[in-house]
Task: structure prediction
Amino acid sequence: MSGDVKEPERTTYREAMREALREALRSDDRVFLMGEDVGRYGGCFGVSLGLLEEFGPERVRDTPLSESAFVGAGIGAALAGMRPIVEIMTVNFSLLALDQILNNAATLRHMSGGQLAVPLVIRMTTGAGRQLAAQHSHSLEGWYAHIPGIRVLAPATLEDARHMLSSALADPDPVLIFEHGSLYNVSGELPSTVQTADVDHATIRRPGTDVSLITYGGSLPKALAAADELAAGGISAEVIDLRTLRPLDHATVAASVARTHRAVVIDEAWRTGSLAAEVSARIAEDAFYDLDAPVERVCSAEVPVPYARQLEEAALPQTADIVAAVHGAVD
Result:
């Protein structure tokens, strides 16, 4: 083997995120990480473990338990020329900082006539499936995808977990990164060659000819599992990973539907007013005459996410639900 070629490294989603943070802190003195328990505790989900010891308390800063205060401080630091990475433990806590995100971070460039940029990255854990009950199991990324002035990313693979952060930090406007909690322990091989992620386009994770499965984040593994099960029964499913929820890459979705003529949208959020509704509407607007069947949606039940494991599983989209929706479109 050539000395220039490196073997893929075995890692986890959590470790890939940690290495992305480490690289960002090493490569730019303006970058710092701040949030609740990101320092001595190593992050609520262990993503920043060891970074305090490596970079010190000026670069890895524990904050008081006030999301509005430390997100606001991050906005101020970004306005002053820094490149802050703000960690919010889980998406439900981001609601305490919604005024800062919606009324300040997302609007200052526009309200200043382009004079003020807010190069801020906000990371947060999203999603259910870990028995954290109703208050810590939200999937609210679709809410944030509604807001002009920000970019919304949902890394679902090791590669995107490792490389999306550098692209986010290069953006002159605010970027929100939603990390599904069920993905942190996912392991696999990651090429060691440093690269950046394409945060402008969705991607085809599995090609197919009979139906398009359109999803993102923590639902991607379920969609891929459903595609495997469908293939065993002779149905070829194409799996689209949206990756970036705002701006949404509808061109990739429409091109897939033009090939397969059927679409199933999988979204862990509630069905009403969801990102799945937006994707479905765009397909109806722009690809209606390519469809051979109505668009199907697989979303969470319209209830607060239950704590009991069997009830939580029943409330969330599962592989079997995706397979059933595909049969509804294809059969």
About this structure: Residues 147 and 276 are 16 Å apart (CA to CA). The chain is about 35% helix and 20% strand.
